[in-house]
Design a protein that fits this description.
Keywords: DNA-binding, Nucleus, Transcription, Transcription regulation. InterPro entries: AtrR-like, Zn2-C6_fun-type_DNA-bd_sf, Zn2Cys6_DnaBD. One of its GO terms (molecular function) is DNA-binding transcription factor activity, RNA polymerase II-specific. Residues 11-48 form the Zn(2)-C6 fungal-type domain. Residues 1-30, 59-93 are annotated as: Disordered. This protein has 786 residues and is mostly helical. It has a domain at 78-386. Helix content is 57%, strand content 1%. The chain has 30 helices and two strands. It has helices spanning 13-17, 37-42, 47-60, 66-84, 160-169, 223-253, 271-277, 284-294, 297-300, 306-324, 341-363, 371-381, 395-400, 404-429, 441-457, 459-462, 464-488, 501-504, 506-513, 520-529, 554-584, 588-608, 610-618, 625-654, 661-667, 669-690, 696-699, 715-735, 741-760, 765-785; strands at 96-98, 127-129. Strands 1-2 form a two-stranded antiparallel ribbon. Helix 21 (554-584) packs parallel to helix 24 (625-654) and helix 26 (669-690) crosses helix 29 (741-760). The protein starts with 12 loop residues before the first helix and ends with a helix.
Length: 786
């Protein structure tokens, strides 16, 4: 053979995709060439051999039969090779439309170097036939291999950490808003790039579903080109949705400044946090979790095997796919909430299959100690499960049958286990001063020197980023565990005692407790300040400085919303504490004490953040798009917490479990609390539904940018909030005068909440069913009142 050719255009497709050196000769006219070295080694069909066979077929064809047989033969060849990769070929007589949907079938990944997000894909979602036939079969066995959780050992799989991290850290996931065109997101921009491995995010105007017929004028020359196009299209689409929803929310909810377990808390905002709040945020948490997993051998006690690495990558991939596939791609804008029946059926089929595959993967990977699998469980617990929409179930029944809390609890148990191991490592790295306090200063310095050596050996203890990532991930699990326990009325996985800051940094606590300069009384005060569920989050604002009001700077608004997030979590925690006291049958004084602590959180919010939230609702159209998405979600979560608090207080007062129950009943406190916040939720829905902010189209994927609350990653929370508000307003119609201003307010508020649920119904069967049931109930109520 000739000298190896390293130029990109003279490498076969498998070598180019795997970034391997291809030794295919420049000229392949000799008959002894079968495949390059890499294709022989990995048992792949070399592209050059495939092209040579096609050229040989063309040379051997009789000239007189070329015009009559060539069309059928070439069509058959392309169809057969395409079918190998699951590519649906267009029929000659059919018309085609470009759409933004990139849902595609995923056959078995045969090349380990292509994983993750490098499966051969079926680009059926790229074009739709005019008849609406997508060609999806009921059998989706080609999506993922049946033995996906047991991967073959290869040299590429050993670099699984770096491969997955590079997927989320690549430039294609850093959305450049200046390059976005108004109107949406198109897969075709990648053809303009010279390097197929670097996919730009320049958008083409996205035609609507009723656009005039469009016939593509390009031809896919090989199955490798077809599969590569489909892979990059689906990868970019799903990661973009994940990026715009999950990572967008986490950039506000989860920062080093509002996390109680961070190493350093400062009033100065670091540059990386400023960037995450800006228009070009990254997939920060997914990247950091991958890096943490790579450095956490000391916590798990061993390194992950090759098979475990591949399984962790696949599980995280499946969870992100299931999460991103919730959003429908073809809902009509404006008043039309429907999706064409054929498209809806096909999208639902894929959504159900991917959801089941993700669930299967998570259930079979629970024994693998991996932070990637933990993060996958968290992502999947936020994903709405497909339901039988023909059934008629209420909110309580739907919540009781939801399996999402099980995956959240699995993630939190694993996180808590890792946290305990981390604390033990820290304590071992910082041995206690067991000798007398009169020990020489030189010995103390020797202990510190020994500690420094141990820190240098352990990558997770020596790296501030890894320690902070572990703290952020643990705080994320604690936050979600708190909200989930309050909503589903389930016990907490991580107790109040186990989620304290002192358990996060025992070495620092030990040194402070043993310090000669501190008195026992000082230590008690210090512990009190470190109580996460005490007054820790009720201290004066760290970032905003003063009580905020809109208008203000973008950075100030983002800081306020980020700072308010833990206060919201604290109110949910108080609700769970009250629910626990009811279960345990605590005495009335203990119950009343927790109620007063809960009111302290409620009053702190009203003094500090309530006016800013009302400003945001009143000026919804003038807010930056990311501020819109953050405040709507945060405000919806807060009002759900207050309505859950009202339900808990109703249970306490009805059972006379609190010492002040009689006073609250006489004042009608619970009813007033419910009605006030239900109306506030309806105002929030109205501002989002009828607001006009075109900047949402530039910052978010088409499936998320019509209304601000569609960006919500945890759909069940807003679904619960909107549905509960609608039920409260519907019940208030019974006691209100049918023609009064108050009745009209209840009616319009209920309609707005139902309308918001219909929008959420695009990605949630639960929201769809609740909107339908509430709409029927409202019609019956109006018929009775007329």
């Amino acid at each position: 053979m000739d000298e190896p050719v390293r130029r990109q255009l003279h490498s076969c497709d498998p070598c180019r995709k795997g970034k391997r050196r291809c030794n295919a000769p420049k000229t392949r006219k000799d008959g002894d060439f079968v495949a390059c070295y890499n294709c022989k080694r990995w048992k792949k069909e070399c592209t050059f051999n495939w092209l040579s066979s096609k050229e040989e077929k063309r040379r051997t064809k009789p000239a007189q039969s070329y015009t009559s047989e060539n069309s059928a033969t070439s069509t058959s060849d392309i169809s057969s090779t395409a079918s190998t990769y699951g590519v649906e070929q267009p029929r000659p007589s059919s018309q085609w439309y470009p759409v933004t949907s990139n849902y595609v079938n995923i056959p078995t990944p045969t090349d380990p170097a292509n994983f993750p997000f490098e499966f051969p894909l079926r680009p059926q979602g790229l074009f739709l036939e005019k008849s609406g036939e997508l060609g999806f079969s009921a059998d989706h066995s080609g999506f993922f291999p049946s033995d996906w959780q047991i991967g073959a050992a290869t040299e590429q799989s050993e670099d699984a950490f770096r491969e997955l991290e590079s997927i989320f850290n690549s430039s294609e996931n850093s959305i450049d808003i200046s390059e976005q065109l108004q109107g949406g997101y198109s897969p075709f921009g990648y053809f303009s790039q010279g390097d197929s491995n670097h996919i730009g995010l320049k958008s083409w105007p996205t035609p609507g579903f009723n656009t005039p017929p469009f016939t593509p004028n390009f031809c896919i020359a090989s199955e490798n080109a077809a599969s590569q196009f489909a892979r990059t299209t689906m990868k970019r689409n799903l990661i973009r949705i994940y990026h715009d929803s999950m990572e967008n929310a986490l950039s506000c909810w989860l920062t080093e400044h509002n996390c109680p377990y961070s190493d350093f808390v400062s009033s100065v905002l670091p540059n990386d946090e400023r960037e995450e709040w800006g228009p070009n945020w990254s997939n920060r948490m997914c990247i950091r979790v991958c890096r943490l997993d790579r450095s956490s051998s000391s916590i798990r006690g061993r390194a992950l095997s090759v098979e475990e690495n591949k399984t962790a990558d696949r599980v995280l991939h499946l969870a992100i796919m299931a999460f991103a596939s919730q959003w429908t791609q073809h809902a009509e804008k404006g008043t039309g909430l429907s999706v064409p029946a054929e498209i809806s059926r096909d999208e639902r089929s894929i959504r159900e299959y991917v959801w089941n595959e993700a669930r299967h993967g998570l259930e079979h990977s629970t024994r693998i100690p991996s932070f990637r699998i933990i993060f996958a469980n968290i992502i999947f617990s936020l994903t709405q499960s497909p339901l039988d929409i023909s059934q008629d179930k209420g909110l309580d029944q739907l919540l009781d049958n939801d399996c999402a809390p099980a995956f959240m609890e699995t993630a939190n148990r694993q996180l808590f286990t890792f946290r305990c191991k981390f604390v033990r490592l820290v304590r071992e790295a910082h041995p206690k001063m067991t000798k007398s306090r009169t020990e020489s200063i030189g010995a103390a310095f020797m202990d510190e020197s020994e500690r420094s050596k141990r820190l240098q050996v352990d990558p997770i203890l020596n790296s501030p980023e890894n320690r902070n990532t572990l703290g952020l991930l643990f705080w994320l699990g604690v936050m979600f565990d708190t909200l989930s326990a309050a909503m589903y009325q389930r016990p907490l996985v991580v107790s109040d005692e186990d989620s304290q800051i002192t358990s996060a940094s025992p070495a620092e606590l030990d040194s402070e407790q043993l310090s000669l300069t501190k008195t026992p009384q000082t230590n008690i005060i210090h512990k009190k300040k470190q109580d996460v569920w005490g007054e820790f989050f009720l201290e004066p604002a760290k970032l905003s400085g003063t009580i905020p009001r809109w208008p203000c700077s973008y950075e100030e608004a983002a800081a306020v919303l980020s700072e308010a997030t833990p206060v919201k979590v604290l109110l949910y925690r108080r609700v769970t504490q009250l629910q626990t006291l009811i279960y345990r049958g605590a005495d009335s004084d203990a119950v009343e004490e927790v109620i007063q602590k809960t009111f302290a959180v409620y009053q702190h919010w009203n003094r500090t953040y309530r006016r800013f939230m009302l400003d945001c609702v009143e000026n919804h159209d003038f807010l930056p798009s990311r501020i819109q998405s953050w405040y709507v979600i945060l405000d919806g979560h807060w009002h759900l917490a207050t309505m859950l608090l009202a339900d808990t207080l109703a249970s306490i007062d009805n059972g006379r479990l609190g010492s002040a129950s009689e006073d609250r009943i006489a004042a009608g406190f619970v009813s007033k609390l419910r009605t006030e916040h239900a109306l506030t939720v309806s105002n929030l829905c109205r501002a989002s539904l009828y607001g006009q902010n075109p900047s949402m189209q530039f910052h978010f994927h088409d499936s998320l940018n019509e209304v601000a609350f569609l960006v919500e990653p945890w759909t069940i929370v807003l679904t619960h909030s909107f549905a509960k508000a609608a039920y409260i307003l519907l019940q208030n119609l019974d006691i209100a005068d049918g023609h009064s201003v108050q009745a009209n307010s209840f009616l319009s508020g209920c309609e707005d909440c139902i309308r918001a649920l219909q929008y959420l119904g695009r990605k949630s069967d639960m929201a769809f069913m609740l909107a339908r049931n509430l709409s029927v109930s409202l019609d019956l109520k109006l018929a009775q009142m007329s």
